Each structure stands twice: as structure tokens, then as C-alpha cells.
Amino acid sequence: MLREMEEQPDAVRRTLEALLPLRSEVAGLFAGRRRVLFVARGSSDNAAIYGRYLLETHAGVVGGLAAPSVATHYRSELDLTDTLVVSVSQSGATEEIVATQDWARSCGGATVAVANVADSPLVRAADLALVTAAGPELAVPATKSYLAQLVAMAVVATALAPAPTALDGELGLVAGEVERLLEQRSGVEEAARQLATTAYTVVSGRGLMMGTALETALKLEETCLRPVRGYSYADLRHGPISVVTAGMTAVLVAAPDGPMLAPMTELAGDLAARGATTIGIGGDAGFAGACSLAVAGPDLPEAVAPMGAIVASQLVVEALARELGLDPDNPRGLAKVTTTDPAS
């Protein structure tokens, strides 16, 4: 897992090189359509959440997340003639995602497949394939393939934006920031030691960082076998914050700028007042100061910050697994290809 995490700067560079030239083809498929629907499960679903937020905040295009069971179990006939359907799967072989993509085409949708395996069923059946260039991933937890999916989400969103190249400068900074985070590991070991001693953990983020928060929670659960809940800032505020007490640890992820930074900083103070230990990932100096422990995040603007912030989270997860004496490469009960119950 650690070795593949360290390959991520090159994975980012290769994926940008491979996919940026395809933006015009993405835009061509979207021509005459109004919305984008993402189809995914697991970590890929968290990548799709970032894609949806970036699509709506940067490109001004309506996005949504599909429920695959609508296709595979309910077999609903929807009108998708105004929809570009983006199916996301690391392996490109998850049966449910492949079936949902086929269903989307039968409903009139144009289809884009995002996968890390070129010769995969999802890629072969799509109108357009965005094959990420992460390289083979041997560890079960998705790290470099997940980050490459985030790059692909940025390619889709920028392709449909009024100015497709507007974020190219920021995208060009991502690989270097990932290299810096991997080298410096600021706050990583301290965060892992704290998480090893806590009985219950919550993870929260908002907006463009929401997918990062949910992916962090998922990685803590599946790799470190810890009971973790991932919440959006709004959902945590709505009610679950009432059960936050002393002895709990809250992991908060934030970008270094943007409209969600101040609310996340305020949340850190509120959780600390309730007795929780707070671990901040990313943010700015004020956010770090409001948290009990701080893990350095990327110096990237909010639109692309999730690509760096997830690397900081991955470092904490890998360090925690070692702290707990677990094998981060092969978590108990997990397989590389996602499976769900078969369609009836």
C-alpha cells in the first residue's frame, strides 16, 4: 500500500497526459444534453461525489449519483436522453456497474467509462473510455487508482465548463504537492497514535471535500477495522453532534480556502468544547490551530485540493494499520473487485 501511495505523483502526471486530450470528446458526447449521472460503488462512489461537486460548482452542469439497483433490480425504464452517464470502477469489472451502464444506454444515455483497466467490460462497452494511468494496483485498498479517478473527474468537469482549460494551472500543481506530502508526512504519526487509542471516530467534511471525508472514513473502516462514521458537515450538525463526547476522536478534512473553510474551523472548536479530540487534515493555519492535532494538507485551491488531501488521509490510515499490527495491504474480508448481491 505504501509503495503504491508513493507512485501517485507519477500516476497523476500520466493520467493528466492521457485524459486531458479527450476533453473535446467528452464535450462532444454531452452536446445537446443537460445533466450528468455518475454510477459507482465503494471508493469509486466517493470519487464520483467529488466529480458531482466540481461539475456543479465549476462547470455549472447539473450532476447526480445513480442508484444502481434502480437498473439491476427494479429495472426501471427512465428517460436518459438528456443525460451523460459516467460509470466509475477501478477494475472496470464490477458486474453491477457494467450492467447499469448497459441499462443507461438502453434508456438513451451517452456513456463514459472511467476505469484503470483498459481491457475491461466497462471500458469495452462505453461510448467513450477514460482509462486512468495509475498502473496495476496490488494492495486491496485503493490509493493510486482512487487518486487517478479524481483526476478523471476533473477532466470530465473541466471538459463541460465554459472555459475548459481554466483549471489547468492548478491541475499541474497536484503531482508536486502529492510528492511533498509523501515526503514530509507532517502530523501523520501523531494522528495515527491518537486514532489507535480512541474507541469511536467520526469523520466530517463538506462541499468539494465531502468525498474525501467519506473516503477517509471508508479507509479507516476497511483497512484498520475501526468503527467509523463519515458525515457531511451539515448532517453532523443536524443531530449526531449531540452524541459527541469526551473519548471520541473527530477527523475533519478541509481545503485551505473556499467558503467551507470557516464553517469547518468553527466545527473543530465546537467538537473540542464537547470533549472530543479533533484531528484536522488540511485547511489553513486557523483551522489547524482549532484542532487538537493537525496533519498537513496540500497547498492547492479548493477545486483541486481533494486530490492532495486524500493522500494525507491515506498516510494516516497506513500508519494506523501498522500501529495496530494489521496488514494494510490485505484487509480482512475485502477483495479488489467490488461485488454486490446479484440481480434477481
From TrEMBL:
One of its GO terms (biological process) is carbohydrate derivative metabolic process. This is SIS domain-containing protein. SUPFAM superfamilies: SIS domain (SSF53697). Keywords: Repeat. It comes from Nocardioides mangrovicus. One of its GO terms (molecular function) is carbohydrate derivative binding. The lineage of its organism: Bacteria, Bacillati, Actinomycetota, Actinomycetes, Propionibacteriales. Coiled coil: none annotated. Pfam families: SIS.
